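User: Please run a holo structure prediction.
Assistant: Happy to. Please share the sequence and the ligand.
User: Here you go; the ligand is adenosine-5'-diphosphate.
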Amino acid sequence: MTTHAPLAIEATGLEKSFGATRAVAGVDLAVPEGAIYGVLGPNGAGKTTVIRMLATLIAPDAGSARVMGHDIHADGDAVRGLVSLTGQLASVDEELTGRENLVLLGRLLGLSRRAAKARSQELLEAFEIAEASGRLVKHYSGGMRRRLDIAASIVVTPRVMFLDEPTTGLDPRSRNQVWEIARALVAGGTTILLCTQYLEEADQLADGIAVIDRGRVIAEGTPGQLKASVGAGALHVRLLDPGRRPEAAAVLGRAVGAVELEPDPAALTVSCSDAERAATGVAELARAGVGIAEFSLGQPSLDEVFLALTGHMAESDHTLEEQAS
Amino acid sequence: MNPTTTTAGGADTAAVRRAIASTERPPRPGRLSTALTFGWRGMLKVKHVPEQLVDVTITPVMFVLMFTYLFGGAIAGSTSAYLQYILPGMLVMSVLFTTVYSGISLNTDLTKGVVDRFRSLPIWRPAPLLGSLLGDSVRYVVAGTVIIVLGVALGYRPEGGAVGALAALALVVVFSFGLSWVFSVLGLLLRSPNAVMNSGFMAIFPLTFLSNVFVDPTTLPGPLEAFVDVNPISILATASRSLMQGQPDGTAIVVSLAVAAGLAAVFLPITTRLYRSR
Ligand SMILES: Nc1ncnc2c1ncn2[C@@H]1O[C@H](COP(=O)(O)OP(=O)(O)O)[C@@H](O)[C@H]1O
Ligand SMILES: [Mg+2]
């Protein structure tokens, strides 16, 4: 990561408690402009609370933050003029149509009636909700809602966008659409702070990742560094003929690394985090004439990352009491 | 898969990129314009969710029919005499029930995350709350008009004429503006729209029955009569009755307006504070 790029988000020592729950217990963030920065953590880690503080929805108990150089406390209005929030709950008005939602935001942001309508039409088409634009949002599918939600966040293109678990609960197709939209936004110059529970999502999108647990940043780095620190992905191979598994194990053992036989008599797994080594392994199998039914390169899960980083599995909703004990 | 223009999912990447590139931030709208935009939102909801209007007017309509024809003869000697007594009170009941919906819709916005979106916008902060009054007022007027029209159809004749009836409706609507902030506070404090509905009606139902909407309080036992006499809903019903009869009761009107102003003075600031910090 370049350290001299100007920072879009700079937070120091952010803290927030709700009663006895220390939701955020001292978070520092430095997000360079024009990047997607991932905040990765399990349910209850404090991700949403961090975003809500940065978007000026709630005031931190301690610490400070600047968004595009504006202090969230002293200059909240200027911050709101530059950011937009796509909350965990797809914050669109269910009792309005998709089009009305977008026109409403356009008007609130200062577009004329005509400009708001034109802009809505453009977004509805680009996000493929034009057909459903006259229906009430409560009848939308999860993917459509999420796309409308993101469209609503870019009626006027923000400088900084907060995306809070944008693909949780979505099917793979809708998830890909959301990822594509996020990439297009960054290509257009927007900085994205992405909260997610999925290492894969952070890996796909983010240039830098902060792993948070119990309201604290416990690791920071590029996706590659994080995965390397965990040490392992895995190449999964299924053979056409289970009888040739010993042979395949020998080939992969030489070409890639330690082989593990799976309960499925046709399948084996090789620990491997390097895609090129994995490709070589598959090619060697093909050269040896061992028929492959399917193969995939799996990534370490968030659970594995957590286990490696903290020595405990990711748990949900930690409380102060648990932390103290 | 066609990696050049579309994703596997189908979102048109080129169009998305164009849509993202094409905006310049316009100057911020004025406060009035922002509040009016929220008013427009309120009207759209009235249009899209007419069931809500039916929900709130059905009870008073049933009450008018039931009380007039079932108990009217027993209470006032004849159904037509009772209708003449009860209708202005039913106007009050009908419109006041509608105010609970201010709290319900605010709570819906809160639990669905819509409030978060509005609060993250660079807009004049009280605008969402003030704008919602516009949609509310449409609901109040409709709820009141339904009762007046029903009454006239059943044979009710306001001695104060159309002017008296309109004046009564206007008074009740203004009172509702004050009362609605009480339910807005509930809407911001409770966990779900249903909880707001239940506690809202739990409060307003007994208050309506312990008023002079249905019966002349002089027939009640002493302590009850004392309560009914000071119940603001009684005072509002008296004022509304006086206007419809063409003999405005100045004291009742002024007290009603003062109560409304008092409710707004206490609960509007609480609402805005809660709205900002939730
Ligand atoms: N408004 C709130 N009131 C009380 N507790 C809250 C509130 N918001 C969050 N919390 C608690 O703070 C912790 C962090 O929550 P959150 O920021 O939502 O985590 P995440 O988004 O990572 O799942 C959780 O234990 C959650 O229960
Ligand atoms: Mg969250």
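The interface with chain A takes residues 7-13, 15-23, 25-29, 33-34, 37, 40-41, 44-45, 48-49, 108-109, 112-114, 116-123, 277 of chain B (CB under 8 Å).
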